[in-house]
Write a structure and sequence with these properties.
The chain is about 20% helix and about 35% strand. It is α+β, with helices and mostly antiparallel strands. The structure holds adenosine-5'-triphosphate. The site of adenosine-5'-triphosphate (ATP) has 12 residues, from strand 2 and helix 1.
Length: about 375
């Protein structure tokens, strides 16, 4: 999975004395008996590209709307730049929101759409013209300034909405599924542009998305939500490599999960007996675990490799290839173990076509390293 953000980006969340730009303190939002957001606490830092990620109905839009001031929390407080804004209306918050529908004014030109908020603020004309020009250049639509929204493609409308949302130089930009209306190729291209623009301006972006690849690609950090609560807040890399829960492991990417119980733990090496894998599993994990504890071992398909022969060591198993999905750059193989459990592994298709590929019905020996898997207790 690719990531557009340079690995060297600052990590302000790791600095304890750094004051977050957004502090969500124990916020709940109930609609009748539905708890859309359930006691969430979260800090977001200056200059972050922060994603609220989760399945439909998990509460991410409600949380974003509370940040924008379009919903009021049932309980809890929201602070922006140290100020309690829980009861402050949207137009008085140093925030702007880009709606999923883009909500452009159909009767106004592109330039007029971008200028709208500046006019409302009574910005002097020369300064306003300069700001509109700057925004048109930022999103590279100078040539479209006089067109009306219905004369634009979906991608161009998205740029106008972004330019309009950024025109007032908000401290924070909230984006609700900003790429939802674009096709796959354009989405990928626009992800790249959004990250570039955000880094250039240094504005904090908070984005709602249900698309895990999009969140992984663009974000400094991701909050994975489930049922109104937060499962995990982490960098994309840590979220993928060290999921905190079974839900997180399953939501981000593909994963093989083996249920079992702890036999022993010595020098951070955990031995786990797993009936369904048909072998013992060895995992490098430093969290304290006790013998007999029920756990799940998580192994990503790309960490599983094919071996010449099966060994009796832990993390070695064999089975029969039942399904193959050829995706061009990689193939995904589904292997059935003698226990009936299915295991997925991937192989990149680097070999020439003439080489003998793995086929359906073939018996294969699989193994992985103790450092390439993790123990989940929740
Ligand atoms: P999606 O990706 O489908 O937009 P979401 O994660 O953004 O989903 P929310 O829109 O925040 O989810 O909704 C969370 C829960 O709150 C859902 O069960 C939804 O039905 C409920 N909900 C949201 N808004 C309202 C409302 N105005 N009145 C009643 N229930 C609501």
């Amino acid at each position: 999975m690719s990531q557009l953000r340079p690995a060297s980006s600052d990590q302000p969340w790791a600095v304890p004395e750094e004051e977050p730009i957004v502090r969500i303190d124990n916020v709940t939002k109930a609609f009748g008996s539905t708890y859309a957001v359930d006691e969430i606490s979260l800090n977001i830092h200056r200059g972050e590209f922060f994603s609220l990620l989760g399945a439909s109905g998990c509460g991410k839009t409600t949380l974003l709307r509370m940040l924008g001031g379009f919903e009021t929390p049932t309980s809890g407080r929201i602070y922006i730049d140290g100020q309690d804004v829980t009861d402050v209306p949207p137009y008085l918050r140093p925030i702007n929101m880009m709606f999923q529908s883009y909500a452009l004014f159909p009767h106004m030109s592109v330039a007029q759409n971008i200028a709208f908020g500046l006019k409302e603020d009574k910005m002097p004309t020369p300064q306003l013209r300069e700001r509109v020009r700057e925004m048109l250049a930022l999103v590279q639509i100078e040539k479209l300034a006089d067109r009306k929204p219905h004369q634009l493609s979906g991608g161009q409308r998205q740029r106008v909405a972004l330019a309009r949302a950024l025109a007032k130089h908000p401290k924070i930009l909230l984006l609700d599924e900003p790429l939802g209306a674009l096709d796959k190729k354009l989405r990928e291209h626009t992800q790249f542009e959004l990250v570039n623009i955000q880094e250039r301006l240094g504005i904090t972006f908070i984005i709602v998305t249900h698309d895990q690849e999009e969140a992984m690609t663009m974000s400094s950090r991701i909050a994975l939500m489930n049922n109104g609560r937060i499962e995990q807040v982490d960098t994309p890399r840590r979220m993928y490599e060290f999921p905190a829960t079974r839900y997180a492991a399953n939501f981000i990417g593909s994963v093989n999960l083996f249920h079992g119980h702890v036999v022993s733990q010595e020098n951070d090496m955990v031995l786990i007996h797993s009936e369904e894998s048909g072998t013992d599993l060895l995992v490098h994990d430093s969290q304290p675990l006790s013998a007999g504890m029920e756990v799940t071992v998580a192994v990503r398909p790309e960490k599983v490799s094919v071996r010449e022969a099966k060994s009796d060591e832990p993390n070695n198993l064999s089975g029969v290839i039942k399904e193959i999905a050829y995706l061009g750059d990689v193939s995904i193989y589904h292997v059935e173990l003698p226990t009936g459990k299915r295991v997925q592994f991937t192989q990149s298709n680097v070999q020439a076509l003439a080489e003998q590929p793995l086929t359906w019905g073939q018996e294969v020996c699989l193994a992985w390293n103790a450092h390439s898997c993790g123990v989940l207790t929740q």
